[in-house]
TrEMBL record:
Source species of the chain: Algoriphagus taiwanensis
InterPro entries listed in its UniProt record: CT_A_B, Cyclophilin-like_dom_sf, PxpC
Domain Carboxyltransferase, residue spans: 29-288
Name of this chain's protein: Biotin-dependent carboxyltransferase family protein
Superkingdom of source: Bacteria
Keywords: ATP-binding, Hydrolase, Nucleotide-binding
Length: 289
C-alpha cells in the first residue's frame, strides 16, 4: 500500500521544541554547527523501536506542555525524560510504541525525571532538508523552535503490520548518575596538578545558563591559563575560561574557540548531560591515562 503525506499539528508547546536528527556533518569548515539531538542515545532508541534509519528526524521537547494532533494513522515512540504521556486523555504508561489513529491527540505533561524528551514517528518527520539535515538552526532553517499552530509533515502508515504484542520499556535510570566520563583535552597539560585534582575530585552544579549552545557550571576555578589561538571545538568539549568559568559546549555551539580545552565528554556523557536540569550536580571522571 502506498504512503501519503500527512500532517502533525502542534496545538500547544513550551519553549525549545524543535526537529533534530544526527546533525550537519562535515560543514564545520564553513563555520556551521553540527546541531542534531542533544541526547543521541534517546533519539536512537525511538528510531530503533520504529525500525527507522538512525538518521530519521525526531521531535526534541525541552519543556512539558506539548499538545499535538495527527491527520492520519501512524506509529510513534517516546523516550528521554520520564514524563506523563496521554493519547485522547488516556495515560500511556509505557510510551515506547504507540499506534496513532486519525485525529488522535497527544499530550506531554510533567517531566518527572530528565530534561529532554524525544518523539519519533514511523519513517521520521519530514521537515525541510537544509545542508543534508532537517535539524533546526536559526541561521539555516526557517524556524529555530516551534510555537503553537506549527505543522510537521510525515508519511502515514495505514497498515497494522507494526502492531506489537509486547514492547520494550525505556529505562530512565541511566542518566540519573552524576558521573560524566571524559577524555583529557589537548590543553589539559597546561593545568597544574592542583587544578587537575580539583576538577576530578569536586562536584559541580549546572547553572541556569544552559541551552543548546552549551552548559555553564556554577563553580569557578581560578587559573593562569593563557588565551590560545582559535582551535577546533566540538559538542562535549569542556572549556575553562581565564575568568574561571567551566563551559561544556552543546550541539549548536560554535565550531572554533580560543579557551583551553580541558576535557572532551564521551558520547554517553553528552546524552547524560542533556538530561540534567539547572541546579543538578555532575562530576568529571577521566577514562584515559
Amino acid at each position: 500500500m502506498s504512503k501519503s503525506l500527512a500532517t502533525a499539528h502542534i496545538i500547544k508547546t513550551g519553549p525549545g521544541t524543535s526537529i533534530q536528527d544526527l546533525g550537519r556533518i562535515d560543514y564545520g569548515k564553513y563555520g556551521i554547527p553540527i546541531s542534531g539531538c542533544m541526547d543521541a542515545k534517546s533519539a536512537h532508541w525511538v528510531n530503533l523501536q520504529l525500525n527507522n534509519p538512525s538518521d530519521s528526524a525526531v521531535l526534541e521537547i525541552s519543556q512539558p506542555g506539548l499538545v499535538m494532533s495527527f491527520s492520519a494513522p501512524t506509529f510513534i515512540s517516546i523516550a528521554g525524560a520520564q514524563s506523563q504521556v496521554k493519547v485522547n486523555g488516556k495515560e500511556i504508561p509505557n510510551p515506547s510504541f504507540i499506534p496513532i489513529k486519525t485525529k488522535d491527540q497527544l499530550e506531554i505533561g510533567q517531566f518527572i525525571t530528565g530534561a529532554r524528551l524525544y518523539l519519533g514517528i514511523k519513517y521520521g518527520f519530514k521537515s525541510q532538508l537544509e545542508l543534508s539535515s532537517r535539524s533546526f538552526y536559526k541561521e539555516i532553517t526557517p524556524l529555530a523552535f516551534f510555537s503553537k499552530e506549527g505543522k510537521i509533515s510525515y508519511w502515514d502508515e495505514p497498515s497494522s503490520s507494526g502492531i506489537l504484542h509486547s514492547k520494550a520499556k525505556w529505562d530512565h535510570t541511566w542518566y540519573e548518575t552524576e558521573e560524566l566520563e571524559v577524555y583529557t583535552g589537548p590543553d589539559w597539560k597546561l593545568l597544574d596538578n592542583e587544578k587537575k585534582s580539583y576538577l576530578l575530585e569536586h562536584r559541580f552544579h549546572i547553572s541556569p545558563l544552559t541551552n543548546r549552545m552549551g552548559a555553564q557550571l556554577l563553580e569557578t576555578i581560578e587559573n593562569n591559563l593563557p588565551e590560545l589561538p582559535t582551535n577546533p571545538v566540538f559538542p562535549g568539549t569542556v572549556q575553562l575560561t581565564s575568568g574561571g568559568k567551566v563551559i561544556i559546549l552543546g550541539q549548536d555551539a560554535q565550531v572554533t574557540g580560543g579557551y583551553p580545552r580541558i576535557f572532551q565528554l564521551t558520547d554517553l556523557a553528552i546524552s547524560i548531560l542533556a538530561q540534567k536540569k539547572p541546579g543538578q550536580v555532575v562530576r568529571f571522571s577521566k577514562v584515559n591515562g
